[in-house]
Write a structure and sequence with these properties.
The chain is of the alpha+beta class. It folds into three domains: about 55 residues, RNA-binding S4 domain (Structural Genomics Hypothetical 15.5 Kd Protein In mrcA-pckA Intergenic Region, Chain A, Roll), CATH 3.10.290.10; about 90 residues, Pseudouridine synthase I, catalytic domain, N-terminal subdomain (Alpha-Beta Plaits, 2-Layer Sandwich), CATH 3.30.70.580; about 80 residues, Alpha-L RNA-binding motif (Alpha-Beta Plaits). The strands form three sheets. Strands 5, 6, 7, 8, 11, 12, 13, 14 and 15 form a nine-stranded mixed beta sheet that branches. A four-stranded antiparallel beta sheet has the order 2-1-3-4. Bound molecules: uracil (URA). Uracil binds next to helix 6.
Length: about 240
């Protein structure tokens, strides 16, 4: 692929802009400045530097973001900054999007990618990808509450009952709940339907991929490798 196409594919701007950037000497490979934007380069394993910052060529990107509170997942955020503002500009330019949504006040693990098939598969209800949430409640967590969430509660506008795959008390005002669906405000609405109120919500795990094992702080992100991506697929085993 030619250099200008490579940089364009990685979200550095239009091909014209990328040609300018390369021509100006702001692009290098292995420490050598390359100014010929039409140069054909093998993309596999390609590492390069733009404006002094190192990059690795990635055909698609798969990212885990530790979403902090106060950010919206929507593409056109209205009341709070969008989660894309937490990532380098290149990602928005290559159309990286959140996989599903977390509420603006929910924190925790959010997957992001520019691979449409991955986003679709990961969000599909048919795939039954379990998501683990740690919820803090207004009133104490009782065995009845856990029983109701496991047995199923009726939510407005939803046919039938919605039940947690798994739920357990983890503290006086804390519970861990696993859902396979991703309905609007689902945890908060289920807790309200069961007679309590969610005061804080953190998504701690998707499939078998645990936020705590990624070693990222709130507001930070990391690329996901093949092994981590494989952890997103069922069967769901890890919950300790
Ligand atoms: N359930 C909710 O209520 N909110 C979220 O952000 C995620 C799941």
């Amino acid at each position: 692929m030619t250099l200008d196409r490579i940089l364009h594919s990685q979200g550095f701007g239009t091909r014209k802009w990328c040609r300018g950037l390369i021509g100006n000497g702001d692009f290098s490979i292995g420490g050598d400045v390359v100014t010929d934007a039409g140069l054909q380069i093998e993309t596999e394993g390609l590492q390069f530097t733009v404006f002094g910052e190192p990059w690795t060529y990635r055909e698609q990107v798969y990212i885990a973001l530790y979403k902090p509170a106060g950010f919206e997942c929507s593409r056109k955020p209205s009341h709070h900054p969008g989660v894309l503002s937490l990532l380098p500009d290149q990602f928005a330019l290559r159309d990286v999007q959140p996989v599903g949504r977390l509420d603006h006040d929910t924190t925790g693990l959010l997957l992001m990618s520019d691979d449409g098939a991955f986003i679709h598969a990961q969000s599909s209800p048919k795939r039954h990808v379990p998501k683990v949430y740690a919820a803090t409640t207004h009133d104490p967590v009782t065995p009845d509450l856990v029983g109701l969430l496991l047995g199923g509660v009726k939510l407005h506008d939803e046919p039938g009952l919605l039940a947690a795959e798994y739920c357990r008390k983890s503290g006086e005002y804390q519970l861990e709940i696993v859902l396979e669906q991703g309905k609007y405000h689902q945890v908060k609405r289920m807790l309200a339907a069961a007679g309590n109120h969610c005061t804080e919500l953190v998504r701690t795990q998707i499939g078998n991929l645990k936020l705590a094992e990624l070693g990222i702080a709130p507001g930070s992100w990391c690329y996901l490798d093949e092994t981590q991506l494989a952890q997103l697929a069922p069967p769901f085993t890890k919950l300790d």
